Amino acid sequence: MRQNSDPKIAIVTDSTSDLNKDMTEELGIEILPLHVVYKDREYLDGLNISPNEVYDNMDVEVPTTSLPSPAEISNLFSRLRDENYTHVLSMHISSGLSGTYETVSQVARDFKEMKIEVMDSKALSMGLGFPVLEAARKLQTSTDFQEIVKLAQNVSGKTKLYFVLSTLEYLKRGGRIGYVSGTIGELLNIKPIISINSEGKYITYAKVRGRDQSLKKLFDILIESTQTGQYLVAIVHGGAEQEARKLWQKAKELPNIKELFFNQISPVMGVHTGPGLVGVIISPVVTAQS
């Protein structure tokens, strides 16, 4: 039972973290959904629209996306305050890809009665999901807020993300292309392996020719990255389940993977990548001290 002097800590993230519903409910993780916006309708990311609904409709209309509104963020923090939470760790999609972190930071300043730590993951998908997951797991055995924050920062800083796309068209269209260039390469069927740099923006990690070779390269990166130590690994996809499942099956054979996840990316992310994403997220098992 929590003593009166103990902090009551909440873990908050947004829908781009790609944590599945069972996991967030079991660990009490609060989710702020981003929005998928069509000309005549709007959806809450992952709540009332699925990734496949986005992909299946792309020939008709490519939607846009928007952040959680200040009112939605304020409502969540107000509810946590009313439920007597004293501390909140709120972790979000890279500020280099979205304004979510900045908006949450601004709203958090209005809640002076709670200690709210807003963290820029400089990542997305399970690159954000893993630090959230590990912080929530730590919270089950500890009420040391700074220790939980430090662990989340450690996990975030050491987690690496790599993915391939069928086309760069949607990244370009959404203005999320970052430092990835590929117009000439696409004509030659060059497929960039995309990662995220320290600014939280997309970069080209490697270039390979053709879809099959790009998927093989993802597996090679996974092997190289898990040679020593223990790792949490997620295989993620956006409208490319069969290819991702093959990669997942191969990853199951690797010796140093402590936990292996398989996730579909959120609809909001699918808007910016289009169908055909396959990704690997690799997170070394760390402690608050390591």
Brief digest:
The protein is α/β, with parallel strands linked by helices.
Task: Write up this protein.
With 290 residues, this protein is α/β, with parallel strands linked by helices. Helices cover 37% and strands 26% of the residues. Strand 1, helix 1 and strand 2 form a beta-alpha-beta unit. The radius of gyration is 19 Å and the shape is globular. The protein starts with 8 loop residues before the first strand and ends in a 6-residue tail after the last strand.
Features:
290 residues, single chain, globular, alpha/beta, 11 helices
Secondary structure elements and pairings:
Layout: E1 9-14, H1 21-27, E2 30-32, E3 35-37, E4 42-44, H2 51-56, E5 64-66, H3 70-82, E6 87-92, H4 100-108, E7 115-120, H5 126-139, H6 145-158, E8 160-164, H7 169-173, H8 183-187, E9 190-196, E10 202-209, H9 211-225, E11 231-238, H10 241-251, E12 257-264, H11 267-273, E13 277-284
Parallel strand pairs: 1-2, 1-6, 6-7, 11-12
Antiparallel strand pairs: 3-4, 3-5, 8-13, 9-10, 11-13
Helix pairs in contact: 3-4, 5-6, 9-10
Largest sheet: 4 strands, parallel
Strand order of the largest sheet: 2-1-6-7
Number of helices: 11
The radius of gyration is 19 Å
Number of strands: 13
Q: Label the structural class.
A: alpha/beta
Helix content: 25-40%
Terminal-residue CA separation: 29 Å
Order of helices and strands: EHEEEHEHEHEHHEHHEEHEHEHE
The low-pLDDT segments are none
Give the CA-based shape: globular
Estimate what percentage of residues fall within beta strands.
25-35%
Average residue-wise pLDDT: 92
